[in-house]
Amino acid sequence: MTASRRTPGRRPGGPDTRGEILLAARESFADKGFAATSIRAVARQAEVDAALVHHYFDSKEELFVQAMSLPLDPRQVAARILDGPREELGRRIVTVFLGVWESDEGQQRMKAMLRSVVTSDDVARLMREGMTSMILQPVSQLLDVPDAMLRVSLIAGHLIGMALTRYVVELEPVASADLSTLVDRMGPAIQSYVDG
Question: Which end of the chain is more exposed for a tag (fewer CB within 10 A), N or C?
Fold first, then answer.
C-alpha cells in the first residue's frame, strides 16, 4: 500500500474548514477592514479554494456577519426597514431597532457589541464599515436626496443614544417605558430626518 501524496494547490475542506475560514475572515476584517477584505484573500489566508468559502458563505456580507458573531443580520434589518411606505419609515426604523434589543439574548449580545465598539477602535471601524455597507447605504439610497448619508447617520446617532439610555444606563422613565410608547414618541423624530 503506497502512501497518498498531496496534490499541489489549495487543500480540500476538512473537519473544521468552516471554523478556519471564519478565523481567517476575522483576522482579515480586523487587519484590513470590511471594504478591503475579499473572499479570495480570506481563502488564501485559510489555505482553501475561494469556491469553498462560497460553499459555506453566500457573500462577503454573510462571511462578515458570521465571523463577527453579530447578534443580528444587518441585511435582514435593512430589508425590514425598507419594506413599506416612505412616510412610515421613521416608525419602522424605531420598531426594528428596538425590537432587536427587546429579547434577553438580543439585549445581552447588543450590549456586548456596543461595549466592544466604544472600547476598541478596531471593532468600531469594522462595525462602522460593515453597518454602512449593509444598512446605512441601502436606507440612504431609498431617501434619494443629496444629503441622504448625513440624514441616515443622524438617525443612527439618535438610535444609539436611545440604546445607551434605555439598555445600558437604564435611565428612567425611558428604561421602563413600553415599546409602543417609545415608537410613538421616537417615530416622528426619526421621520423628520427622513423628510429633511
Answer: N
Q: Measured between alpha carbons, how far is 48 from 17 in angstroms, rounded to an integer? A: 8
In the chain the domains, ranked by start, together with CATH numbers, are: 17-67 (1.10.10.60), 74-195 (1.10.357.10)
Contact 148, 141 (CB under 8 A): yes
- Write down the mean pLDDT value for the chain: 84
Is residue 5 predicted with pLDDT exceeding 90? no
Phi, psi for 146 (deg, rounded to 5): -60, -35
* Residue 4 three-state SS: coil
Predicted pLDDT of residue 172: 97
What's the rounded Cα separation, in Å, for the pair 63 and 129? 14
Nearest to 190, CA basis, from 153, 147, 155, 145: 155
Backbone angles phi, psi at 48, to 5 degrees: -135, 165
